[in-house]
Automatic annotation (TrEMBL):
It comes from Regulus satrapa. This is CNTP5 protein. GO terms for cellular component: membrane. It is found in: Membrane. Keywords: EGF-like domain, Membrane, Signal, Transmembrane, Transmembrane helix. PROSITE patterns: FA58C_1, FA58C_2, FA58C_3, LAM_G_DOMAIN.
């Protein structure tokens, strides 16, 4: 219909902010100029946020992405996003507009609802996932999660066994470190400790995704879109974990509320361990 958004002043400090009401998955955007005018935007950038306070710029090919806008007031220019965005708030930021007019925009945002199970950790808590049996011995492990951290250090998850096996994922000075030890029953003190670090500035209060895939000694460790492939040391192919995995911290056995290392302070979302939705399990007791 008639009209559209046009700010009082046309300069590069303007934006149009959209509140989608809830966190959703945005897959495409479209723009038009202002109806019946010479006001349209020829190029623009997008920013997105969960809170309306901390913003990220939409990027492609490791660069801030500039979208091609309109060449008249009425044609719709549609862009499918190469990477979908999970966000509640969007900002359309005009970069250039019609020389003979002002900034003018009509917008549409396309997407779908986003299923999300989130656990909030306050830096003094952890979530324990107890196994049905005393020992979990695995040749293959897949762990996936997203996290948003308030601080640069903290344990995201940890499991250990009496033979010396362990797996630990922790933030250290804004970087993510995966520590893995596939112990060997024959060689208790074999040099089988492996540590790999990925990412930086991961304590920026934005969501980051993690995927750990282990098959025997081969491990793929992915943080956001960067993957490290490595092979663990030692002779063993299986990981032996006793009793439980802890998420958000490493509790000291027999001492409730006491932790070995700094706890995670932030949110963990859609946490899966070998196909088990841990947060959904916690919600349902």
């Amino acid at each position: 219909g008639a009209g559209g958004w046009s700010p009082l002043e046309s300069n590069e400090q303007q934006w149009l902010q959209v509140d989608l009401g809830d966190r959703v998955e945005v897959v495409a955007v479209a723009t038009q100029g202002r109806y019946g005018s010479s006001d349209w935007v020829t190029s623009y950038a997008l920013m997105f946020s969960d809170t309306g306070r901390n913003w990220r710029q939409y990027r492609q090919d490791d660069a801030v992405w500039v979208f091609t806008g309109n060449s008249n007031a009425d044609s719709v220019v549609h862009h499918k996003l190469l990477h979908s965005m999970k966000a509640r708030f969007l900002r359309f930021i005009p970069l250039k507009w019609n020389v003979g007019g002002q900034i003018g925009l009509r917008v549409e945002v396309f997407g779908c609802s986003y299923k999300s199970d989130i656990a909030d950790f306050d830096g003094r808590s952890s979530l324990l996932y107890r196994f049905n049996q005393k020992l979990m011995s695995t040749f293959k492990d897949v762990v996936s999660l997203k996290f948003k951290s308030m601080q640069g250090d903290g344990v995201l998850f940890h499991g250990e066994g009496q033979r010396g096996d362990y797996i630990t994922l922790e933030l250290q000075k804004g970087k993510l470190s995966l520590h893995l030890n596939l112990g060997d029953s024959n060689l208790h003190f074999s040099n089988s400790h492996t540590s790999v670090t990925l990412g930086s500035l991961l304590d920026d209060q934005h969501w980051h995704s993690v995927l750990i895939e282990r098959f025997n000694k081969q491990v793929n460790f992915t943080v956001d879109k960067h993957t490290q492939h490595f092979r663990t040391k030692g002779d063993s192919d299986h990981l032996d974990i006793d009793y439980e995995l802890s998420f958000g911290g490493i509790p000291v056995p027999g001492k409730p509320g006491t932790f070995q290392r700094k706890n995670f302070h932030g949110c963990i979302e859609n946490l899966y361990y070998n196909g088990v939705n841990i947060i959904d399990l916690a919600k349902r007791r």
